[in-house]
Amino acid sequence: MNYWLMKSEPDTFGINDLINRPHQTEHWDGVRNYQARNMIRDEMKLGDLVFFYHSNCDAPGIVGMMEVVKEAYPDHTAFDPDNKHFDPKSDPAKPTWMMVDVKYVRTLARIITLAELKGKPELAELALVRRGNRLSIMPVSQQQWEFILALE
DNA sequence: GCCAACGTTGGC
DNA sequence: GCCAACGTTGGC
Fold first, then answer.
1. Is the pLDDT of residue A16 over 90?
2. Of the residues A47, A69, A75, A137, which has the maximum number of CB atoms within 10 A of its CB?
3. How high does pLDDT run on average in chain A?
4. C1' (B1) to CA (A9) span, angstroms
5. Cα A37 vs. chain centroid, distance in angstroms?
6. What confidence category does residue A100 fall into, taking pLDDT thresholds of 50, 70 and 90?
7. Which nucleotide is nearest, taking the CA of residue A84 and each C1'?
8. Consecutive H or E run containing A149
9. What distance lies between CA A110 and its chain's CA centroid?
10. Residues spanned by the domain of A78
11. How many independent structural domains does chain A possess?
12. Band of the pLDDT at A133, cuts 50, 70, 90?
């Protein structure tokens, strides 16, 4: 089983929005970065656990946990001219962008903030805390996952 | 709101 | 294939 971290802006789609979806499940659309796409397409598997990270907000940090409940399939928002993430170059016959479905697992007892994570030597290799990192989806090792949860 | 860092685009 | 310009991300 693999572990992941995915970012979302709470003003757009926060963890409470996921809770309020039918079956507490939603497709994770809008990823338009090839490196992130490759991870979605090739590596995210049913049952993988994912940290829900709130970005671009007052207190950026990990707020909860979710589970992959459907593996990669075409991100239909890329074909919708009215969608913010429309990509005119993506051919529906050969989709460029993929997404998975995720289901809410639980909210953490507290927000584990980016500021806190940055100070931990155990997390020095975590992409999130590395300089200039902008990936919206990144792998988390089992050791990193357990270390972070122990901070809760 | 600022701006550093990064990915993508497109001229050449 | 190089690289400058541009747009976006996202912390602060």
1. yes
2. A75
3. 94
4. 18
5. 11
6. very high
7. C8
8. helix A142-150
9. 18
10. 3-151
11. 1
12. confident
DSSP string across A14-51: -HHHHHTSGGGEEE------HHHHHHHHHT--TT-EEE
The answer to whether the pTM exceeds 0.90 is yes
Structure tokens at A149: 């949860």
pLDDT bin (cut points 50, 70, 90) of residue A82 is confident
Instruction: Tell me which nucleotides of strand B come within 7 A of a protein CB.
Output: 4-9
Q: How far is the CA of A30 from the C1' of C9 (A)?
A: 14
- B5 C1': nearest CA residue: A132
Q: Contacts of strand B, CB cut-off 7 Å?
A: A 33-35, 89, 131-134
For the domain that residue A118 is a member of, what is the CATH number? 3.10.590.10
Largest pairwise CA distance in chain A: 46
CA of A90 and C1' of B5: distance in angstroms? 27
Q: Which nucleotides of C are covered by protein (CB under 7 A)?
A: 8-12
